[in-house]
């Protein structure tokens, strides 16, 4: 996508914990930092995001399902 970010391999994705920070979710989806936070803030992130205080956490099961890697 021209952002210079390295995506994640299938193996990396399958070893993620139950929820990951937004930066990891963005990396898995190929989103830049600003776009990912903008989508999360508007409630339009492509998979389920939890808001815990000031932090966003991406539900890994939803992320893997979106990427076609669900168990």
Q: Which percent range fits the helix content? A: 40-55%
Report the sheet with the most strands, covering strand number, pairing sense and barrel closure: 3 strands, antiparallel
Beta-strand content bin = 15-25%
Alpha-carbon distance between the two ends: 27 Å
Residue runs with pLDDT of under 50 for 5 or more positions: 1-5
Strands ordered across the widest β-sheet = 1-3-2
Shape: globular
Roughly what is the average pLDDT, rounded to an integer? 89
User: Which structural category do the helix and sheet elements fall into?
Assistant: alpha+beta
| Strand count | 3
H-E string: HEHHEEH
State the helix count.
4
**What's the Cα radius of gyration?**
11 Å
What does the model show?
The protein has 71 residues and is α+β, with helices and mostly antiparallel strands. Helix content is 42%, strand content 17%. A hairpin with a 2-residue loop joins β2 and β3 (55-59). The longest helix is centred in the middle third of the chain and has 10 residues, at 33-42. The protein starts with 9 loop residues before the first helix and ends in a 5-residue tail after the last helix.
């Amino acid at each position: 996508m021209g952002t210079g970010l390295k995506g994640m391999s299938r193996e990396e994705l399958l070893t993620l914990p139950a929820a990951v920070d937004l930066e990891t979710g963005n990396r898995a989806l190929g989103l830049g930092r600003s776009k990912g936070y903008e989508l999360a803030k508007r409630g339009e992130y492509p998979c389920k995001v939890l808001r815990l205080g000031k932090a966003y956490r991406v539900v890994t099961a939803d992320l893997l399902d979106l990427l076609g890697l669900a168990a």
